[in-house]
Amino acid sequence: MKFNFRLSILLLATLFGIVFSVPSLLQTENGKRVNLGLDLQGGLHMLLGVKSEEALKSKMKSIATGIGYFTEKNDILVEDLKISEKNEISFIFLDSDDRVQIEEYLKKLDDVKYIQNGDTFTILITPEGSQAIQEQALNQAVETIRNRLDQFGLAEPTVAKQGNDKILVELPGIKSAEEEKRARDLIAKSAQLYMMAIDERHQSKAPLLSEAQAKAYGDLLLPDVNDEEIKYLVRSIPILDGARLKNANVVFNEMQQPVITFSLDSLGSEVFGNFTGKNVGNRLAIVLDGKVFSAPVINERIGGGAGQISGNFQLQEAQDLAIALRSGALLAPVYVLEKRSVGPSLGADSIRSATIALIGGFLLVIIFMAFYYGRAGLVSNVALIVNLFIILAVMSLFGATLTLPGMAGIVLTVGMAVDANVIINERIRGLLYAGKSVSKAISEGYEKATTAILDANITTLIAAVVLYAYGNGPIKGFAITISIGILASMLTAILGTRGIYEAFATSVSKKGVKYFGIKDIK
Amino acid sequence: MEFFKRKQNYNFMSKSRYLLLLSLSLMAFSYFLLFTKGLNFGIDFAGGTVIQVQYEQEAPISKMREALNSYPVFEGSSITEFGSPEEVIIRVKTSSGELQRDLGDVVSEALQSTGNFEIRRVDMVGAKVGGELREKGVTSLLLVVIAILIYVSFRFEWRFALASIFALVHDITIVLGGLVLFEIEVNLDTLAALLTILGYSLNDTIIVFDRIREGLVKYKGIVLSHIIDESVSKTLSRTTLTSLTTFFVVLTLLLFGGEIIYSFAFTLLIGVIIGTYSSIFIASPTLIWFRFSVEGYRKMLAEREKREKEKARMRAMYEGGRL
Q1: For labeling, which of A39, A277, A494, B173 is most exposed (least CB within 10 Å)?
Q2: Which of B125, B143, B160 lies at the terminal end of a domain, its last residue?
């Protein structure tokens, strides 16, 4: 055996392939390894859209609430603070001495501009502001959903922005339909918490009012959480919103029912204290996602900024709600654009059948090559096996995800990787028929085969790259395995097998044409 | 072992006329199928929901139908067996954007009384996403074709590029026709299979073209059809061998790869057969169609060589300090 440059590259590649595919093959904890895609290990994949008009609405609501705090705190008298159909805030100021102070405050607000007309201020969103808010809503939704899922207790959730208006959520390792449903519920909760004043002047008429009539009073008509028939008439500008929430936890009340306690930050506590102090005897509605959870009568000024949400919660429901409140509200609700969920048992089935196909296909090819090309076929088979290891190793190093189409890609690559070897062996045979010596046939055969292999593989590579750029998750996996496979097959076939021939040059020559599966030249 | 007689040159070109005719009629038939019956788009491109349900016993399909019929969302949905009698696929035309209650939840509620089952898969694609995916699919096919056209023109000659694109269109058309004929659902993985066939068939064609390119320089004759015959014969055992191994592999994938990968494997299977056929019998004869001229090509090569030589001479002179 003669050691040579090409052989050493093949040996290095083999070593590389084996070393780096070990973590994946044994699925060890340490080291980089191939991850199984959601279609193989089971899990939930969702593409979510954001209802950005809702983000604009809730932004205006929070600006209006802020104006409420500000005027309250500075004893500025305003009247008729409301949000119109067109999502514009307007209010009338009563004392023109306050004008400068108000304007100063309004100037500091982002994304909006104001128009003053006599005693009336109108605040509307600027076009740039609208874009910024929508962008912010998306980022905030990504952040919030990530926070929620992190607390949900599943391994490795993925939440990422996709394009400029979509969110990708991937939850591997979901074990049952119930768990999946719970995760979806948690993501879907807007968790918009508001404390709103009940309009005591008109509340008695609430059961008879229409939405439009309520609006005319500057009110909203909201249902009770337990009974849709019970309606509350609340002032449309909230006193406080969930942004002022500092913490939320589940505790048990005296009846051993789970309730959620929350605490407010310092500004929140102050506003809450002031409001309750001025409204003793009135009712305060605690509103979550458009439903009134409770509407207790204010008995005295409440300082300290703590409150409680009670409803007929199940324990888990209360826990998920507390997670949602802690991780903040969604500025805008999300909806599903695309969803793929695979149960773990189906994933396991897919792995099993794809593995059978992979091993079966591989064996067929290997037996066929050995049969057709004799010793040269065995050399090609070495290249094929090394090829598989290299694919696995490179995928492990990249931490690539193995999907079902990806596995199909590997199966297919085996079929195609053999091609480079076939081209080379056919060339060598052709030259042997033409009467060339074995060593001459080998060196010329490789030279001639190389351009053909390069041209053919580069075109396939082009197709794979386009697939990668345009495909979605599983298809990308397919493109990756095909590309790595093609590159690896060029390395093992063009360099590797030649290295083997050179190393065993004397015995190849001694065996002559028989080495290449030909009986004789004549 | 050898498949083909080594010294024999097969006379492909004499029969190319009939085969071209066969191919053109196959293509025409495929177009007819595509325009009348049309492709059976799955949810990836058409939008909708697919729910895979596995029962502990044989799936009570008629009972399921009854149960689902009481819900208006399932209007026009279909229930079919999937791989085994216990397993079924429910295809619903609509999709729901609602996170908290999707069609999988509704199905699981509706089928409550039909026995013990497990919902193994819920795939939902909204109409908007489906449209985007379809657009992307068409774009990717076009991009591949254009990129290949450029590459082959650069490496060979523009008529080689045209001929290979013709072979590609030929393959894709007939495979699509086959998908219509056998009512295979077209999803993203079918698209991946189509793109793979593009690469595969082209790979085959290029290997033959590579020989023709070599033959154009090596053989003295100027009759293109002889050069083609010689080159196709020389690459015949390679084409057959590679196709056979790929065929074996795709066949195992089809037989053992499971129901989910079926449409992918089936598309590949037709593709491998058509792709092999076209690179042996169709791609090269079209070179003649496009009036490829042997003399013209040799002239071009000679000129290119002359230019190279001139360049080398100039460089030598420059380096020699004479310019």
Answers
A1: A277
A2: B125
